[in-house]
Design brief:
Elements (H helix, E strand, L loop, with lengths): L6 H4 L8 H23 L5 H29 L6 H23 L6 H24 L5 H21 L2 H9 L1 H17 L2 H9 L5 H7 L2 H29 L2
Bound molecules: retinal.
């Protein structure tokens, strides 16, 4: 009964030298702040941009909820929250694909293009989860990582050289430049994740893992990647709405 009033016994405290836990904590705060920013600014834009800004806010909000949980999971000494990490991604990455569709819709983007990107991102993430959480022995992580990587390259091709890039070129102006920036996020920003994966799983690429020092660093890499990509993506869309108000 007395424990009821002793918060430290109920809420796990995070050690001040726990730098991995700290990145979960800061990540959570950043996602919350970004969500408030996107949601509150939404109504100041023209109708045609509101859904895009709403989706930006949903991406960071879903991440904020997961980071809240993952921060706790980590602080309680459970290690890497692999399952919830992937639940977060399987919800937010398809929404990032929806962003591409939304900004290119006026230029003629089809639902088919949207579903293609969503399907590829699902393959990329399910394969990644198999390698990181299910088939973790032997060649498992390398094999599933390769399959995941192929789906990743297919996404890059589609938005950089494929149909999406042609639509962006035909739209021109602010839409084209926003599309180009989003492509850079996918090519450079998303490439952070396979590095985290190599640091956290066993495989021929072991040197990467050893250099970074195993699972601990993997979460730092993923947390930094999420902050850059989720908030950055949202800001590109926000900037597009501002520029073409
Ligand atoms: C907000 C979360 C985002 C943008 C997550 C993106 C995740 C990836 C691009 C993950 C990619 C992976 C590979 C390309 C190979 C190894 C396995 C993954 C899943 C880490």
């Amino acid at each position: 009964m007395e424990n009821l009033f002793n918060l430290s016994a109920v809420v796990p405290a995070m050690a001040t030298d726990d730098y991995v836990g700290f990145t979960f904590f800061v990540g959570c705060m950043a996602m919350m702040a970004a969500s408030a920013f996107f949601f509150l600014s939404m109504n100041s834009f023209d109708n045609k941009w509101r859904t895009s800004i709403l989706v930006s806010g949903l991406i960071t909000f879903i991440a904020a909820v997961h980071y809240w949980y993952m921060r706790d999971y980590w602080a309680s000494g459970n290690g890497s929250p692999t399952f919830f990490r992937y639940v977060d991604w399987i919800l937010t990455v398809p929404l990032m694909c929806v962003e591409f569709y939304l900004i290119l819709k006026a230029a003629g983007a089809t639902k088919q293009l949207m579903w293609k990107l969503i399907l590829l991102s699902t393959v990329m993430l399910v394969a990644g989860y198999f390698g990181e959480g299910v088939y973790t022995g032997g060649n498992g992580p390398a094999l599933w990582g390769l399959i995941s990587g192929l789906a990743y390259f297919a996404i890059v091709y589609e938005i950089w050289k494929g149909e999406a890039s042609k639509l962006a070129a035909s739209a021109g102006g602010a839409v084209l430049s926003a599309h180009k920036t989003l492509v850079k996020f996918v090519v450079i920003g998303w490439a952070i994740y396979p590095i985290g994966y190599m640091a956290g799983t066993q495989g021929w690429y072991g040197a990467a893992g050893e250099f970074f020092g195993m699972p601990i660093a993997m979460d730092v890499i993923y947390n930094v990647g999420d902050a850059i990509n989720k908030i950055g993506f949202g800001l590109v869309v926000y900037n597009l709405a501002v520029n073409s108000k």
